Amino acid sequence: MPVSKNLLHALLVACPTPPGDSSDPPSACRPTSRAGWLTALLCATGLTLGGCSPAPDSGKAGPTFRTQALPFVFGLSDLFEVPIYWLDNDRVFLPGYLADPDGPNRSKDGKSAFTALGLYIHDTRAGTWTRYADLAEGYYFCYNQGFITYLTHRDHANRANWVEYGGPMGSERRLVGDDPRGTRGGVGAEYLPCSWTKRKPLLRPEHVGAMVWHLRPEHGYLHVGRPSEPGELAVNPRNQNEPALLVRPGNDAPIPLPILVKELDVSTKITFAEHAQKYVINPGNRWTADVSTRIDSWPKGHPIRLYILSLDGSVETIEIPYGNRPSLVFLTKQGLFFVSSNTRGAQSRTAGGWLLRNGKQTKLFEHMPEAAGVSPDGCRIAYAYNDYNRDTREYVQIVDLCQ
Questions:
Q1: Per-residue pLDDT reduced to its tens digit, 343-392
Q2: Rounded mean pLDDT of 221-239?
Q3: How far is residue 94's CA from residue 162's CA, in Å, rounded to a whole number?
Q4: Among 5, 38, 1, residue whose Cα is nearest residue 188
Q5: Phi, psi of 206 (to 5 degrees)
Q6: pLDDT for 131-189, tens place per residue?
Q7: CA 302 remoteness from chain centre
Q8: SS (H, E, C) the chain
Q9: Does residue 24 contact residue 138 with C-beta atoms inside 8 Å?
Q10: What are the CA-CA distances from residue 304 to residues 89, 331, 338 (Å)?
Q11: Domains in the chain and their CATH numbers?
Q12: What integer pLDDT is reported at residue 44 of this predicted model?
């Protein structure tokens, strides 16, 4: 499975970027086989235009929600889990492939071709597509509050496996080994994702070296305690039942949260809702677990607990019935949106996307979701899905919750 860049960047004691072979071309409309060091990952395949099969039924989006299928193939990364970003309420920013009769990648039947992997901006209002940059296979792509970082093709002349660009979007530049904002091969664990804000000045002296989930710099961070050994990516069993702390900028006392330290392990995912100015916390571990023992799965019958964190430190607890453990969670104008890839065998209809509002859980679609993102106003969801069937394709849909 891809490694979450959220894990790599959000913790103070982050893992280094792994090396990798970036030789993989797009997979469904071509005769070549997978390559690279993560060969087990299913990649982005097929196309909805130019001779490839049309997209399957979009699933159950509900009678009140408008669904739009995009003529685009989402590009998975071999190495990193990649989200879908929104630049504003109309423009979606995502990696993938477009149909191009002169493109370098041919379909298996030879009847269609499409572009090399790249970053695209789709204006949903104007219906236009703009190729922003090339991407390397096995790429990393991050966008954060106007800053961008991405990996493009190899620089054979300088023997560089990956060439990384970063900076304010539109004026980013190549990052090199002596760049003060990063380290060779990546921006580095010393900096927050994309924006290159140094971590240490954001931390209180007593928290340097601790496990920390960084929020936006103006909001502070979540303190999860010190690991058993320096550099460990694991919650210390000795303080696992202590409350996590919200540490805000300034000299105010840290705020104990009704969230246990052990819940915020390295697989935790945190998203920020612009429209609500709240964070959604999807814990990586259940509150009844013991981190000193190995937990292989969520216990049967136990509800999944999520948290909505306000900037003042207040927390709303939401429970999802057992069976739909969410992989991605977002707060929308119409309620809590979450996706789950839990399946029984290859039956994708046991996975999908749900909307939880007023205590009622409604299934929006029946697909294997791979990536998702919500517009800043909380009205529109863009998601990529892969149903793991014979005609596997990474399609992209947009669901409008406000029309």
A1: 655 555 567 888 998 888 888 887 778 889 999 999 999 998 876 544 44
A2: 82
A3: 19
A4: 5
A5: -75, -10
A6: 999 988 778 888 998 999 888 876 655 555 678 888 899 998 887 654 444 443 444 45
A7: 25
A8: CCEEHHHHHHCCCCCCCCCCCCCCCCCCCCCCCCCCCCCCCCCCCCCCCCCCCCCCCCCCCCCCCEEEEECCEECCCCCEECCCEECCCCEEEEEEECECCCCCEECCCCCCEECCCEEEEEECCCCEEEEEEECCCCCCEEEECCEEEEEECCECCCCECCEEEEEECCCCEECCCCCCCCECCECCCCECCCCCCECHHHCCHHHCCCCEEECCCCCCEEECCCCCCCCCCCCCHHHCCCEEEEECCCCCCCEEEEEEHHHCCCCCEEEEECCCCEEEEECCCCCCCCCCCCCCCCCCCCCEEEEEEECCCCEEEEEECCCCCCCEEEEECCEEEEEECCCECCEHHHCEEEEEECCEEEEEECCCEEEEEECCCCCEEEEEECCCCCCCCCEEEEEECCC
A9: yes
A10: 30, 16, 12
A11: 3-400 (2.130.10)
A12: 27
pLDDT score at 272: 95
Please list the residues that pair with 281 across neighbouring strands: 270, 307
Residue that has been written with the tokens 């306000």 in this structure: 310
Q: Do the Cβ atoms of 396 and 96 come closer than 8 Å?
A: yes
Compute the C-alpha angle 128/131/134, nearest 5°.
165
Residue 295 vs residue 320, higher pLDDT: 320
